[in-house]
Amino acid sequence: MGNLTPLAQYSPTPPTFPGQLNRRQKAAIIVRLLLQHGTDLPLKDLPDELQVDLTMMIGSMRHIDRDTLGNVIDEFIVELEELGLTFPKGLAGALAQLDGKISPHTAARLRKEAGVRQTGDPWERVRALDIKKLLPVFDSESTEIAAVMLSKLDTGKAAKLLSMLPGPKARRITYAVSLTSGITAESLDRIGISLAAQLDAVADSVFDKDPVVRVGAILNFSTAATRDDVLTGLDETDSDFAERVRKAIFTYTNIPQRIAPRDIPKIVRGLDPAILVTALAASTDPEAAKTAEYILGNMSARLADSIREEVKDRGKVKAKDGEEAMTEVVNEVRALEAAGELLLLTGDEEEEG
């Protein structure tokens, strides 16, 4: 042992014995061993100062004999077995563990009140967002920031997002990507944190559906007069919103454009025959008449002839009764759609054969 003393002064770490190792050295040994065996350790989630300490400790240590390694492992296993349960440190850790378990607006409020941002790589949060949420950020940020953001997105998502931008803006951002090679890691992280914080600050809607869908659903169950009056008012206030609402609305007169011929028999089977006859008998204006002919033209000839006779015998129908019957037809369509038994066509193109 005396012969080792002169060599020890040249070693960055004195000869190691189990009793001489501190907790940081033991932690460095366990981390080094796990990494050597391919374990994916989330070290980036540690506070920066602990990451620095761990890195410096691993860099300063050299040879550890087999007995020392065995003793450190045994001690580590004993500590693990005695450990019952751990909790995340601080509100940031708690929010990370409860992500997806508590409502988004509650998490955002807690994060804002405590001044806590989401932990981990901010770019992971940015990349995980839907294109509809990313697009407004692209519109509001500078060309340079948009170029960095585009570079960090998955290729498919970046291409789709680029295609949704106006041509001149898309070209400017694409060119700016070529200028991002000199950006430092610190700058990239700061941009990611800023964007993630900006996206976190956007209030999550307390409604399950888009405003267009909600207004369209309400107008679907309104009378024709109310629907026309509301749409006329929307045209004057916001013509773009009005047009999107019109596309979301499905009414009796939309059947020829939005129901495939093969689905007409399904709808007819689910209706009370008296309701169908009343709806067809009330189809006297040009648009409703087209719907009536579309329905009759896409069922068996014998059934269509029988229904035509019943419609003729039914005679004139009160406006209120006719509208209620047409609403029942629409309700049946909606029920079949919700059950996945038919798909509404877009109305902008013919059904593909």
Automatic annotation (TrEMBL):
<keyword id="KW-0975">Bacterial flagellum</keyword>
<dbReference type="GO" id="GO:0003774">
    <property type="term" value="F:cytoskeletal motor activity"/>
</dbReference>
<keyword id="KW-0282">Flagellum</keyword>
<dbReference type="GO" id="GO:0071973">
    <property type="term" value="P:bacterial-type flagellum-dependent cell motility"/>
</dbReference>
<keyword id="KW-0145">Chemotaxis</keyword>
<dbReference type="InterPro" id="IPR023087">
    <property type="entry name" value="Flg_Motor_Flig_C"/>
</dbReference>
<dbReference type="InterPro" id="IPR011002">
    <property type="entry name" value="FliG_a-hlx"/>
</dbReference>
<dbReference type="InterPro" id="IPR032779">
    <property type="entry name" value="FliG_M"/>
</dbReference>
<dbReference type="GO" id="GO:0005886">
    <property type="term" value="C:plasma membrane"/>
</dbReference>
<comment type="function">
    <text>FliG is one of three proteins (FliG, FliN, FliM) that forms the rotor-mounted switch complex (C ring), located at the base of the basal body. This complex interacts with the CheY and CheZ chemotaxis proteins, in addition to contacting components of the motor that determine the direction of flagellar rotation.</text>
</comment>
<protein>
    <recommendedName>
        <fullName>Flagellar motor switch protein FliG</fullName>
    </recommendedName>
</protein>
<dbReference type="Pfam" id="PF14841">
    <property type="entry name" value="FliG_M"/>
</dbReference>
<dbReference type="InterPro" id="IPR000090">
    <property type="entry name" value="Flg_Motor_Flig"/>
</dbReference>
<keyword id="KW-0969">Cilium</keyword>
<dbReference type="Pfam" id="PF14842">
    <property type="entry name" value="FliG_N"/>
</dbReference>
<comment type="similarity">
    <text>Belongs to the FliG family.</text>
</comment>
<feature type="domain" description="Flagellar motor switch protein FliG middle">
    <location>
        <begin position="133"/>
        <end position="203"/>
    </location>
</feature>
<keyword id="KW-0472">Membrane</keyword>
<dbReference type="InterPro" id="IPR028263">
    <property type="entry name" value="FliG_N"/>
</dbReference>
<feature type="domain" description="Flagellar motor switch protein FliG N-terminal">
    <location>
        <begin position="20"/>
        <end position="123"/>
    </location>
</feature>
<keyword id="KW-0283">Flagellar rotation</keyword>
<dbReference type="Pfam" id="PF01706">
    <property type="entry name" value="FliG_C"/>
</dbReference>
<feature type="domain" description="Flagellar motor switch protein FliG C-terminal">
    <location>
        <begin position="233"/>
        <end position="343"/>
    </location>
</feature>
<keyword id="KW-1003">Cell membrane</keyword>
<keyword id="KW-0966">Cell projection</keyword>
<dbReference type="GO" id="GO:0006935">
    <property type="term" value="P:chemotaxis"/>
</dbReference>
<dbReference type="GO" id="GO:0009425">
    <property type="term" value="C:bacterial-type flagellum basal body"/>
</dbReference>
